[in-house]
Write a structure and sequence with these properties.
By secondary structure, the protein is α/β, with parallel strands linked by helices. Helices cover 34% and strands 18% of the residues. It contains ten helices and twelve strands. Strand 5 (93-96), helix 3 (99-107) and strand 6 form a beta-alpha-beta unit. Helix 4 crosses helix 9. The radius of gyration is 28 Å and the shape is elongated.
């Protein structure tokens, strides 16, 4: 369809709700097969207004349908807005973001067909500090060295057995005094016959980081993994807790003495138990990500497109 988007220039007003709707539709309807224009020209099928009813301009396009994407925040119309139902009844279709809005319009006397289209945001712009990956952070001193106090090979085994390259996950290891060759040999052994393209990613950080840089690592993480076979206290665990990050740790002293009640515990050497904890946290991450992205611009545009097609596309 050829759609005339009538927004009064709002799509450039990023702080306006209607502006954000108009900008999303201007960008998102094209990839769905529509042509979006912003001025009168031949061949227009739909005039799509994104505004309060009072500012819907009376643009007349022969043979074009008129659609208003609008809303109201009250259950009554104040003085100066009493003609809004008449304005909406002159349209062919009303799009509104909630069932509540639809029921309000109906009670106010709107008889035009009304469809509900939730408003969305851009998940590429608005997302949590952990990003779009389930980042599992470990701090392993002496990575790659057999007698390390960190069960780093055990961590690899749990991680590789829990996930594949198709999972949105990353194991990030901060280390120092490490043996890259020893680590790589163990990593390849744990990978088995799987190729690099089949494995979930592992990132090793061997650099001296400032406190601010370490804090950034914690805040980008979904879970901090402390897989120690012996420990004196664990400053990294304390740092992770201070940053509000959940911890999965081996059930040893003195970790039991000072880690919070919400800590996820596993037995030293029990890579299957650690794997289950990692998978549990990944399921929680995935459910949270699905909830956060339930209202996205792409969904708004898809529903607008479907409603325009259903109401105005001529039957074959």
């Amino acid at each position: 369809m050829k759609i005339l988007l009538i927004d009064g220039g709002r799509r450039k007003q990023v702080e306006s709700g209607y502006g954000r709707i108009a900008a999303a539709l201007a960008e998102g309807l094209g990839p769905l097969g529509h042509t979006v224009v912003f001025a009168l020209e031949p061949g227009i099928d739909v005039c799509l207004y994104t505004s309060p009813p009072w500012s819907m301009r009376k643009v007349h396009v022969a043979a074009a349908s008129r659609v208003g994407f609008t809303m109201h925040e009250l259950e009554h119309l104040q003085e100066g807005k009493r003609d809004w139902p008449d304005i909406l009844n002159a349209l062919d279709l009303v799009l509104t973001p909630t069932e509540w809005n639809r029921s309000v319009w109906r009670r106010l006397g709107v008889t035009t067909p009304i469809e509900v289209v939730p408003l969305g945001v851009d998940p590429g712009t608005y997302f949590p500090g952990t990003g779009h990956l389930c980042v599992l952070l470990a701090v392993h001193e002496s990575l790659g060295i057999p007698d390390s106090r960190e069960n780093w090979g055990n961590t690899l085994e749990a991680y590789y057995s829990a996930f594949t390259a198709t999972d949105r996950v990353l194991l990030r290891i901060k280390t120092w005094k490490w043996d890259p060759e020893g680590f790589e040999a163990e990593r390849l052994a744990q990978a088995g016959r799987r190729t690099a393209a089949e494995l979930p990613p592992v990132e090793v950080i061997d650099a001296t980081l400032s406190h601010a840089e370490m804090r950034a690592l914690y805040l980008e993480s979904t879970l901090f993994v402390k897989n120690a076979n012996r420990e004196g206290w664990s400053i990294p665990c304390t740092e992770a807790v201070a940053c509000g990050i959940g911890v999965a740790a081996t059930n040893i002293e003195p970790l039991r003495s000072h880690l919070p009640a919400g800590t996820l515990w596993f037995t030293p050497g029990d890579w299957q138990g650690l794997r289950e904890l990692l998978q549990q946290r990944y399921r929680e991450f995935s459910a949270g990500r699905e909830e956060r992205e339930r209202y996205a611009n792409s969904l708004t545009c898809q529903l607008v497109s479907e409603n325009l097609e259903r109401h105005f596309r001529p039957s074959p």
